[in-house]
Write a structure and sequence with these properties.
This protein is α/β, with parallel strands linked by helices. The chain is built from 13 helices and 31 strands. The chain is 23% helix and 23% strand. The mean pLDDT is 95.
Length: 610
């Protein structure tokens, strides 16, 4: 059941709203003239009316039981913010010109996560378009937009959205998003959208006035859980599933990143994620265009990404927290909060070999056994990074890795991510070592809510033993501090780091063994004493050998090339990358003792098949 204002063309529009708890629902038109039109209810609690003389842009609300007036929960445009009227959108009016775009294979995704409001000074969809070419030059194949569903005000990460169908007005609304997606596809760039189906934001959330969108059966960090399996949940499930299709069908998005699916509670026989995967697979078949679902999950539950024939939900991929946490602790030495579960080279070795580190072993942080084995799943089902919006922005001062680690360690972190077989994700500015923070920011209009956010942020950091007051999330200055200083990316060490990232990404396309998905064609080892990790992967066409040195000192290593001639392809210590200089030979043909520079990574390639 399609909900919202379905524009049929010729100024004809069907309005549908799910409200099973109401005795009477009327459409309140505010433009082109104010009038009230009763709606008819069906047996499932859907109210509808179809009208002529409704041009695109017509503003409307719903009157509930003759005493409550609210915007449309499935509004596609909120031109006057979250409390104002909804507006009719004509999706057929946009002139798509994508040149036969068919999406990029998931294994070729190199994702660049960005926040629309802080990626450019203008903070709009259209302002991103001139930068697409530079991201393509870097080697990025997909941009990932942090949530753009309508939130209150103009400053927000996007996870306080209250209209899942509506595109944020301050970013450029539906038209602006379509222009960005169209431009990306014209130039060969995929677009991933971050969507939130585990909660609604606190301000402007009127869904409770329409129906049982929430259930008291489960609690999330944001309050009662969205109702996916309690009484009258069918309407809620339809609301979310139709929203998934909306992004793919109406905005031509290529993949959805599903935020915090561990806070989606559904104990029915058909989990909402499994049903979502079915709907998306059907749409992909109908449109002959592959769409992907990528979950964010801290469950380490392989059922999420297992195919349907193995009893899984059929989600295409998921973020790997374990990989990030293992890498982060080795780079920074931080061991507070959830980082206490990590900190050894053996952890990262396991992440590189088995996908998850916690595979039903004991977690000190959770104080219980955690996770399942996923080592038999292909690496293209795992998204890895050395930083992302959460791991930067959820720090009290929003420090990026560039403020917490040495320049050499930044290159080591980049090499660990981009030389892994997984799908790499970069957080905007990471590629040149952006030093401006990414802080948490909001622009709520409710003073009590603003104060609650301030208190909540301070309490959140107590677990990490942070001292002092977090920057004021409501202040415009906090937001302004987060806007990228894009112009510095080609200067000095920034430029050297950018060039290093470009070379790493290029190697992924040049050397098949880097992305090898054959578990039986790899060897991974680690040394805790030396703080070294080595990896050897091969295909029929090529083979690679890499070493990651997390030691702050030079470390000797006995390299046995096992026959053939091995060519050095990249060494982070080389002066080319403004490193301290490397003593490693360009070629190795026999066993040799080599010395690895502190906090460095090196990759050798041999063209002999195994």
């Amino acid at each position: 059941m399609k909900v919202g204002a379905n524009y049929l063309g010729g100024d004809r529009c069907e309005f549908v709203v799910w409200s099973p708890i109401r005795e009477a629902v009327s459409l309140k038109l505010e433009t082109p003239e104010s009038r009230l039109i009763p709606m008819e209810r069906d047996e499932s609690g859907y109210w509808r009316v179809t009208l002529d003389n409704i041009p695109p842009g017509t503003r409307y609300k719903f009157e509930l039981d003759e005493d409550t007036i609210r915007p449309d929960p499935a509004s596609e445009f909120q031109p006057e913010d979250v409390h104002g009227p909804s507006a009719v959108v004509d999706h057929g009016a946009f002139n798509w010109d994508e040149g036969g775009w068919q999406n990029t294979p998931l294994e070729d995704y190199i994702i660049y996560e960005l926040h629309v409001g802080t990626f450019t000074p203008e903070g709009t969809f259209e302002a991103i378009i001139p930068r697409i070419s530079e991201l393509l030059e870097l080697g990025i194949t997909a941009i990932e937009l942090m949530p753009v569903s309508q939130f209150p005000g103009s400053r927000n990460w996007g996870y306080d959205g209250v209209y899942p169908y509506a595109v944020q007005t301050s970013y450029g609304g539906p038209e602006g998003l379509k222009k960005l997606v169209n431009a990306c596809h014209q130039q060969g760039m995929a677009v991933v959208m971050d969507v939130v189906y585990n909660h609604f934001g606190p301000e402007g959330n009127y869904t409770r006035d329409f129906g049982p969108y929430f259930t008291p059966k489960y609690q999330t960090p944001w309050g009662s859980a969205i109702n996916y399996d309690d009484a009258d949940s069918d309407g809620v499930r339809n609301f979310v599933l139709e929203n998934v299709l909306c992004w793919f069908r109406d905005y031509h998005i290529d993949a959805l990143r599903l935020d915090a699916i561990h806070a989606i509670y559904d104990f029915g026989a058909r989990h909402i994620l499994s049903e979502m995967a079915d709907w998306v697979a059907e749409l992909s078949e109908q449109l002959n265009r592959k769409f992907y679902l990528i979950a964010e999950s801290d469950l380490n539950d392989v059922r999420i990404i297992n195919p349907k024939e193995r009893g899984g939900y059929g989600i295409d991929a998921q973020w790997s927290d374990d990989f990030h946490h293992a890498l982060r602790t080795l780079i920074t030495g931080e061991l507070t909060g959830y980082y206490k579960d990590f900190g050894t080279c053996a952890d990262l070795e396991k992440a590189l070999r088995d996908r998850f580190i916690y595979t039903w072993n004991y977690s000190k942080n959770r104080q219980r056994f955690h996770g399942s084995y996923a080592g038999d799943r292909p690496p293209s089902q795992f998204v890895v990074c050395c930083q992302n919006h959460d791991q930067v922005g959820n720090r009290m001062l929003g420090e990026r890795l560039s403020e917490l680690a040495s320049f050499e360690a930044l290159k080591l972190a980049a090499g660990t991510v981009l030389l892994s077989p997984y799908i790499p994700l970069l957080f905007m500015g990471e590629e040149y070592g952006e030093t401006r923070p990414f802080l948490y920011f909001i622009s709520h209009t409710d003073p009590d809510l603003v104060e609650a956010v301030r208190k909540g942020r301070k309490a959140e950091f107590e677990e990490f033993h942070a001292v002092g007051e977090p920057p004021d999330a409501q202040s415009p200055e906090t937001f302004k501090r987060c806007i990228l200083n894009w112009e510095e990316r080609n200067q000095g060490k920034y430029g050297a780091l950018l060039a290093f990232y470009k070379r790493l990404i290029a190697l992924r396309s040049e050397i098949p063994a880097i992305k090898s998905s054959d578990r039986d064609r790899q060897k991974i080892a680690s040394s805790e004493a030396d703080k070294l990790i080595s990896f050897h992967r091969w295909t029929q066409d090529s083979q690679i050998f890499g070493i990651l040195n997390f030691n702050s000192e030079s470390v000797g290593y006995q390299f046995d090339p096992e026959g053939g001639t091995w060519q050095k392809r990249i060494d982070s210590a080389d002066s080319e990358w403004m490193g301290p200089g490397s003593s490693l030979p360009d070629t190795l043909a026999e066993s040799e003792n080599i010395s690895l520079a502190p906090e460095s990574c090196v990759l050798y390639e041999c063209q002999r098949a195994i």
